[in-house]
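G., the chain you wanted modeled:
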Amino acid sequence: MTSESYPCPLPGGAAAREYALSFDKGRAVRMLVVPALFDEANKLRHLTVEVMRRLHGAGIDCFLPDLPGTNESLRDLAGVELEDWRMAVEAAARHFGATHLLALRGGGLLVPGGLPGWLYAPVKGASLLKTMLRARILASREAGLEETSEALLERGLEQGLELAGFILSGEMIRQLQAAMPAGDARLTVIEQDLVEGRPLWLRAEPDHDPAQADALAAIVSLGCKA
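Predicted structure as tokens:
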């Protein structure tokens, strides 16, 4: 596994370099892995890398791009919109010559058209937003503050909002409300019951389950050979 970079579009037409983890041996099948979003990205990070490692062992090159404003990115997340992430994923697919894609959870909101692949437990943007709002309300209640999702959402749309440790712009929140997983016929949905085990994104802390990584990688690698 190595760290590479790819040219990521900036507003106004310029580009910045963003990092990507890769298993690249120049093989025929090149898998773009689109990460889960926000707190779920942290909870699924270990699983994501282990799935890539298994796909690499099955003869599949894999690329996991950092999204602008996340991980090692120098961009401020507060100035990033969902559309910026979509452009980043498309740029990464083009740069690495992806032939297939695997999107995890909210990553299914970002996938570019034209590539076959898999959506693992895809989720609506509004559902991600609802989960983060609920977590904020519970944390505030423990601190002796009372907040409602309606008031938080109204404030967030006007001036941005911190949710799950992430500062989201009003435009990011607005775009999340309407975002739906890709519906391309070339994309196969992998629901959690096929992978088995309790979903890692529902656990309180980041965790790993090798059996789930085995199952997810097996589904994808077999699909590549079909």
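Helices lie at 39-57, 82-96, 125-142, 149-159, 170-178, 192-195, 210-225.

Shout if anything looks off.
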